[in-house]
Specification:
Elements lengths: L1 E7 L3 E8 L4 E8 L3 H12 L4 E8 L14 E2 L10 E2 H8 L4 E5 H12 L8 E6 L3 E7 L2 E2 L33 H5 L1 H8 L12 H20 L4 E4 L8 H13 L8 H4 E3 L6 H17 L4
Parallel strand pairs: 1-4, 4-7, 8-11, 11-12
Antiparallel strand pairs: 1-2, 2-3, 5-6, 8-9, 9-10
Length: 293
């Protein structure tokens, strides 16, 4: 039995086929261009394999409410050409298999849940800190959400005393979390891409200050077993230590957490493999939901 995964990112699509043991057998990566061209490439990839279900983790915002008239749509996204696109409808016209549709960060969070299940964890929060910021929360094995999926990347944060003049880059909110802590905010402040910024510049510490606040909000609101960070910004080796330092100082021992080396972690799987694993597992879940297993 083969399962499918689509990591529908704003920059690229990663399509994969794997076994029910979640082992990747084939994969293809291509740029995210227009919906017609990009989805045709995805369809052509899967037509070469006898997949029984596909898990899709997409950039958003998207409509994941099954009863909604626009279920399966990409909604009002800043990504050119993709607003109001019926992604699931277009895929199902050519690929008549069950599909589980969720956000890219939900898929990554679910993959991390699977990767950490030997530790008995059924609750976690996952943040991706990169070009944008997204987050997902899982409690007792289920995604948190009601009217829609979570958008914790756009929560508001207390400004760093040395960052008060920076207006933020979010086109909707200015200085929300994404506006002050995403990768592009580094270049907006310094004129330098993140990978070229010296580690001794204070901007890294400012960014970690905001990310730590997001982790504290998740802790106080959801009390997860752990908080996991992915994305290009957190791939910088020095960042997780900075975030832990600010987290400890800002929380000020108000509530007990596990040791921060265990509680605030980086992803378990390299190269965003968490999303692929999560999509495979969600495809299997969709098969059970549809009564095929």
């Amino acid at each position: 039995m083969l399962l499918g995964s689509i990591e529908a990112g704003g920059t690229k699509f990663v399509c994969s086929v794997g076994t029910e043991q979640f082992e990747v057998k084939h994969s293809s990566t291509f740029p995210t261009t227009t919906p017609q061209k990009t989805l045709k490439q995805a369809i052509d990839f899967f037509k070469s394999f006898d997949v029984v279900a596909i898990g899709i983790g997409s950039f958003g915002p998207i409509d994941i409410i099954r009863e909604s008239k626009t279920y399966g749509y990409v909604m009002s996204t800043p990504k050119p050409y993709w607003s109001d696109v019926d992604m699931i409808g277009l895929l199902k016209k050519e690929l008549n298999v069950p599909m589980y549709f969720t956000t890219d960060v939900n898929a990554s969070a679910y993959g991390e849940l699977i990767a950490n299940e030997n530790q008995g964890s059924q609750s976690l929060v996952y943040f991706t800190i990169g070009t944008g910021i997204g987050a997902a929360a899982i409690q007792q094995g289920q995604f948190i959400g009601g009217i829609s999926h979570a958008e914790m990347g756009h929560q508001f944060v207390k400004r760093h005393p040395k960052d008060l003049e920076f207006k933020g880059i979010c086109p909707f909110h200015g200085d929300c979390l994404e506006g002050v802590a995403s990768g592009p905010s580094l270049k907006a402040r310094t004129g330098i891409s993140g990978e070229n910024i010296s580690l001794d510049l204070e901007v890294w510490d400012i960014q970690a200050y905001y990310i730590a606040q997001a982790a504290i909000s998740a802790t106080l609101t959801l009390a997860p077993s752990k908080i996991i960070f992915g994305g290009g910004v957190m791939a910088q080796e020095h960042m997780i230590a900075r975030v832990r330092t600010h987290f400890k100082a800002l929380l000020n021992d108000y509530v007990m957490t596990p040791p921060l080396e265990d509680y605030l972690q980086l992803t378990s799987i390299a190269d965003n493999g968490s999303a692929t694993l999560g999509n495979f597992a969600l495809a299997l879940k969709e098969l059970r939901y549809k009564g095929h297993l």
